[in-house]
Amino acid sequence: MVVKKKTPKVEAVALDDVKLKSLTDSLSVEGDSRSIELAQVLKDSLSSSDPVEQIQLISKAGFMLEQMSEDESSTGPLLHACLSTLAFLYTTLPAKNPLKRAVASALGSGPDWLQEKTVGWLSECLSSSLSSTNTDHFSHLTDSITSCLDGFKIGEKCVHRLLTEVLQFFQRTLNYYVEQNRGLAGRHVAQAQLMQSCLAVVKASMLVVQRSQEPISTAVLSASSDQSDLHQVLSGLLNCYTCILTDEEFVQTVQSTAGMAVVLFIRSIMGNGNDDVPVIVAGLLQCSVDAGSTAPQWLKQSCAGLYESSRPAAVALYLSHGALAMLSWRGKTLGPQAEKLLLLIPEVLLSLDTRVKESSTVMVVARVLTLWSGAAVDCVQVDTCPPLLHSSLVGGSHLIARLHHHIYAHWEHPLDGVRHQTRSLFQNLLTLHQHCSDHKSDPTSDPYISQLTRDLLALEWHMKGKYGTLACLVEHLGAEYLLKLDGGLPSRLLGLMGDQTLAPYSSDLLEKLFVSHKAQLCARFRDGNAWIDGWHEVWVTPLLQVLCTARLDQTTYILDYFLPKLLRCNPSSLSHMVQALQEMPSCTEGAAGSRGALGALMTCLRAARSQGVLKSVEEELWGGLVPLPLMRQALVHKHDQVRMDALGLLCESHRSTEQLSRQEMELIRHFLPFNLNSQSPGVRQQTVSLLKKLLCRVKDSAQLLQKRKDQRENDKDQQVLNMYQEFLCWFCETLFQVLHPGASFSRCLMALHLLLLIAEHFTFNTGSVGFALGESVSVSHAKAVLYCLASNFLEVKQLACNLLQKLPPAAVRLQEPETLQSLLQVALDLSTSTKPFDSVTAAHLLNLLLYQPGLQDALLGCIQKQYIPLWPPVLNQSQASEASTLEQNTLAVVQWLMICLKEEILKAESSLLQAAASCPLYGRAHCITAVLQQLNTGSLVLLSQWRAVVSELIGLCYRMSDVVSPVVQSSSPEGLIPMDTESETSADLQKILQEIQPRDTNDFFTSARELDPSDTDHNSEQKEPENTVHKRQICNAGGSDGEAYRVTAQMVLVCCWRTMKEVSMLLGHLCQSMTLYCPLTHPDSRGVITEDQVEGVGKYFREQLLQSRHRGAFELAYVGFVRLTEMLCRSGSAMLQQLPAHWLKEVLEEVKSSDPSSKLCATRRSAGIPFYIQALLSSEPKSSSCGLLKMTMRSLTALAMPSNDGATESSTVPQVHALNILRALYRDTRLGENIVPFVSEGMQAAILGFTSPVWAVRNSSTLLFSTLITRIFGVKKGKDEHSKKNRMTGREFFTRFPALYPFLLSQLQEAAASVNSDSGQVKLHPSLFLLLLVLGRLYPSPMDGSSSPLGLAPFMPLIIRCGRSAVYRTREMAARALVPFVLVTQVPSTIQTLLEELPEEPGPGIQQNHIHGTLLQVLSLLRSYLADTHRPQSENKQDCDLSSAIFPRLWLATRVSAEETT
Questions:
Q1: Contact 921/1059 with Cβ under 8 angstroms?
Q2: Do 1138 and 189 contact (CB within 8 A), yes or no?
Q3: Does residue 396 contact residue 402 with C-beta atoms inside 8 Å?
Q4: How far is CA 69 from CA 32, 64, 74, 109, in A?
Q5: What is the DSSP letter of 137?
Q6: According to a count of CB atoms within 10 Å of the terminal CB, is the N or C end of the chain lower?
Q7: Contact 817, 854 (CB under 8 A)
Q8: What pLDDT, on a 0 to 100 scale, did the predictor assign at position 876?
């Protein structure tokens, strides 16, 4: 899709009267004729209000300046006034206004003798602007300075003349922004604007310094350089950049640019060719001042903050980026200091791997490493590569090995950008090795590359990083080398195409392989197509076998990802595919559910058709390549995917204007009736999508035919159009016939979807334009669609409502007053139904009727029929003329629904039981919300009425909430049936509430509720008659039997939580959609809802989320609250922007101080508290510094950790809340990668919480641990719980979460110390299972090499010791957890050591648990070792010979061992 470039907005110069008079007066002085003419043009430009005319006049003035000659009286005051006016206009206009460009062109078009005067006047205007202290003009002045350097020579000279003043302005601006940023906590919109302005200033300062190298060098060489103004301002700017780099509240983009600015300033001050520059930069990277450096003292003082050891870790990252971007690395031989700096940068970056936590910072590290590798490639491509670089950058060197370890740790990173940069780094490392190695001519003979290729092929295929690196090796070595190593590579990759997560990666690698293979074969066989048979044998034959024999779900993605690429590479392969498939016997079947030869043929043809390889011939369909009976068979095939491929073959085309043939239309007629009732959602979606493409073809080709027909009469074109008309009428008639009463859900859904496509592409018009499909829509058809509104399925209701609005009005008949009034009455009646889906039907009916002009009359008729003496307010004539029909109707309907709702609230306040049985409140509230959603609140006219409506609606919502809150806020809302407070059973209700009340607190943590045995019998005798009366009266309220009692209880509960849901949705919609009204600050604003009302709604949501117990109530209150928080974030009110931070601090303080008497619910996983905090945190922009999230996570992790004083009442409840809240935050996908830096602390809290003596803490810790396992290792991707798809290499795990290494080690040491089966007592450390579960999710990688850099050795003896546990499950898990910590090369020796620990003969001191655990560990290691098909071969065969250890211990497999066990 071509995106049209956005045109800049042209605005006329608007000056105040005083300034305009001043300029006009200055242009009215005497002068020569040319100057007077020029002045008149400028005066006309100033007085004009048309921006285009102003541009024309300014351009004319520029032409006149160009014609000025020096012999005229050019130095007069009038010419100076003209130049001054143009200079003033230039500094006043916004940077993106085209008028500014015209003024710059006029100033620059003057003759040479006038240039100096022009520079003087522009410098004077700019200097005057720079001296301004108005902070509102900072951004405009920054843009003006930048525009001066944008191809404007006069402006560039002006900046050079005012260099010190310009840099002083930048220093003053940056100091102001740094100070402002400290006071903008919580105000995300203002903070984002400030960051944008700050970034612009840093970039502008860099641009000025880059363009002003000569004056800066001159100032440096001057005698008193340290005392010069230029040095002082450069020092001040460096100090500002240092503040930005060390202040973590600044966003990364600004910090990264500041890092580049620091290096640029150092280079500019020291000189481009100075060898001390790399030394100074290296000192900054290493955070140490080089004693031998010749850098000025003031420079070291300016960057003092960068030399502090306590600086943030990311500072080195941004400085590294600056060094790579601002220093020259290309096309020259490096000096020794620059060479050391180039090798130092990756060391610094790699040291950050385990120090940075935020994923965004990891992304920057990956990008800078790729940038470094590109610079290194540039450096080694020179004629004489320095020996140090040559030895350090060749494959196998220490640095390259570390970089490869970084690649293997990050190629599975959740961020796509990190994975992409990792692949680019790998590609550059291959290039570096190619330039530095001795095997440049033949890379396949390089032992390093050969071993690397074998190692990569040995990896598991579920590792996505493997595919990209292999693709790089294909480019480096060619496909034939990889096919030589693994001949089954094409078949294996095609088999992986069934996995949706791997299909894109597999198809990309396959494309690299077959394109490279084709190029190699073509280079070898130079005689035409001699190569093609061999290519088909390797790539096409396996493809056809997979398509014919594999299951459909395994081949779906071959069509999407692989086939189009193969056909693009070699289009002539299509004929080979078709011939091979047609010659294949029809009985060829593979696995159950395979598509067979016919299905494979359809798949190949569909891909060829969409790529334009298969073209239609007018006389015969696709040149007779496919017989029509075969197509008919495929369109009604038993397999869904075969039918979809056949339909895709018909509908998809390379050109949207390709005509439909009569045969294609006949095939669609054959397909449609048999495929409207598909039960598969995926098939329905594909069918609609493909038929949409067909209708687009009909529309586009019809337009082309009509255009051609209008140009010249052509009977053939008219015949095709008539054929289209007939086909579309049949299409509509077939779909309308499907919508009969009782039609299945799938039929209705498909028919409505397709009819909406017809309405979207052709419209149901009744005129002579187009195909006039409206004439085929009858009244019965419209009624059939109207009846679909009564469906129980929401999607059918929505589609039917949308379609009714597009059908011809004559068929729907909503203009008839009787029909309109009857439908409105039905909607009003359904809005009070006790069936929830009836209120949804009512809402859709109202949405349909809102656009009818006669709705208000129909509403009055409905009111009169009910004999209610209440009338909605009537609008006066002037208001009615301004407001749209939709706004008037919406206002009238909402006002009437509010009147009805008031009456029903009064009933509910008197008797909730009667309200639930006769007029539940949620129906009216749902209809009000649905009606308001149709309104464009940004263009309301009846503002006073809407303000009153919103105010009253909020009050009604509060009243509804008060009625139902006692139920949803009860500790057991599902079992509570509140009775009328004024009825005879009020005493019984109070007893019920009294019995429930003790459970409404959190004291169940510390003391169990006990019954008094002395009162039990007496109370039972007294209470039995009362309970009998109580039950009988409740039954009478709902019916005459027990079943009615249960239905009544359900109705009460449904009424209460659905009412709470609708209240939340209505309040959330009001806050989100209604514009803000601030009568004090902006009395003329067209807002509706006030700040106080918004804050009140926020407090209401706070109460509901923190006190509701019913999950349905607080989950839906959360949805409404999320809408409110989104509105707060983007509102222009500073007070509202700070509310989320204020509320968050309040609730965290309340959680911290909660105890058993707190109103916060600690059961039900803390109920709505996690939702409340989630909503507040998700409102924080992802691009911000995430200060609220960091503050919250620090507080919660501190609370979740066990206290040093042990489990007390004051610490247990906050700990449970913290664990539950953390679980919700780790599960929240909207927080994304921002939550990952806190995973280590969460895992520690979960494992330590499992050691608590309080059950509630252990329960919450278990739930948190489960969530963290999913967050770290991903959702379960298969039935096998221990599949490597849900596991991670030990290197990657401890690189991403380095804090877990010492923690898991210390915890495992403590747990292993308690494992001792010698005493005969079962001792189980509480967190041992969790530790082994985590460690068991890791697995070794062949890329780890012969030595482990992660120090995993300390884990091994501890895990082996856990195998001695008396608990079988512990021994089993210890055996599985041992495998990741044993390198492949050490498996035989480890097994040998384990076997030697077993006794060689029976004895009295033998522990069977120890023997069994050891054998389990040996078994797990053997299985892992034997499953590794590319394991390295040991040079010493005795290392793999286990017979010497096994044979002496064969007695363990005899009955003697069994007797010892007993």
A1: yes
A2: no
A3: no
A4: 12, 10, 8, 13
A5: G
A6: N
A7: yes
A8: 55
Task: Spell out the long-range contacts of 571-574 with Cβ–Cβ below 8 A and sequence spacing 24 or more.
Answer: 571/608, 571/611, 571/613, 572/529, 572/532, 573/532, 573/536, 573/540, 574/604, 574/605, 574/608, 574/613, 574/614
The count of other CB atoms within 10 Å of the CB of residue 1040 is 9
**Tens of pLDDT along 851-905?**
888 888 888 888 877 655 555 555 555 555 667 888 888 999 999 999 989 988 9
Residue 426 has pLDDT above 90, yes or no: yes
CA distance 240 to 177: 10
For 457, the enclosing helix (H) or strand (E) is helix 447-458
The C-alpha atoms of residue 694 and residue 858 are separated, in whole angstroms, by: 42
DSSP 378-392: HHHTSSS--HHHHHH
Instruction: Give CA–CA dist 931/63, Å, rounded.
Output: 61
Q: Mean pLDDT, the chain, as a whole number? A: 79
From residue 233, give the alpha-carbon distance in Å to each of 166, 212, 216, 265, 1436: 10, 14, 12, 11, 70
Q: Classify residue 437 as left (phi > 0), alpha (psi -120 to 50) or beta.
A: beta
Query: Residue-wise over 914-951: b if at least 16 C-beta within 10 A, else e?
Result: ebbbebbbbbbbbbbbbbbeebebeebbbeebbbebbe
Q: Can you tell me the distance from the alpha carbon of 653 to that of 480, in angstroms, rounded to the nearest whole number?
A: 35
For 252, the token pair is 């990364």
User: Can you say whether residue 1077 is alpha, beta or left, with left for phi > 0 and alpha for psi between -120 and 50 degrees?
Assistant: beta
- Among 605-614, 685-694, 982-991, where is mean pLDDT lowest? 982-991
pLDDT 10s digits, 1339-1388: 766 665 544 445 667 888 888 888 888 888 888 888 888 887 777 777 88
Q: What is the Cα–Cα distance from 132 to 1207, expressed in whole angstroms?
A: 62
H or E element that contains 851:
none
CB-CB contact of 279 with 293 (8 Å): yes
Which pTM does this prediction carry?
0.78
What is the CA angle 148-154-157, rounded to 5?
Answer: 85
CB neighbour class for 1319 (10 Å; exposed up to 12, middle 13-18, buried from 19): exposed
- The residue whose two tokens read 């891909």 is 607
Q: Which amino acid is at 1452?
A: L
Q: How far apart are CA 410 and CA 422, in angstroms?
A: 7
Tokens encoding 734: 């077939």
Main-chain phi, psi angles of 1289, to 5 degrees: -70, 150
Between CA 366 and CA 373, with CA 369 as vertex, the angle to 5 degrees is: 140
Burial 191-207 (b: 16+ CB within 10 A, else e): beebbebbbbbbbbbbb
Q: Do residues 1292 and 1301 make contact, with C-beta atoms less than 8 angstroms apart? A: no
Euclidean distance between CA atoms 315 and 961, whole angstroms: 52
Rg of the chain (C-alpha set): 39
Structure tokens at 1126: 């989104």
Q: What are phi and psi of 1207, to 5 degrees?
A: -75, 110
The top-scoring range by mean pLDDT among 245-249, 789-793, 928-932, 1003-1007 is 928-932
User: What SS3 class is residue 1090?
Assistant: strand
Q: Estimate the crossing angle of helix 745-761 against helix 794-804, to 10 degrees.
A: 30
**What does the alpha-carbon distance between residue 576 and residue 769 come to, in Å, rounded to a whole number?**
47
Number of helical (H) and strand (E) elements in the chain, helices listed first: 70, 4
Q: Which two tokens stand for residue 278?
A: 């790399």
Taking only the tens place, the pLDDT of each residue in 742-778 is 888 899 999 999 999 998 888 887 665 667 787 888 8
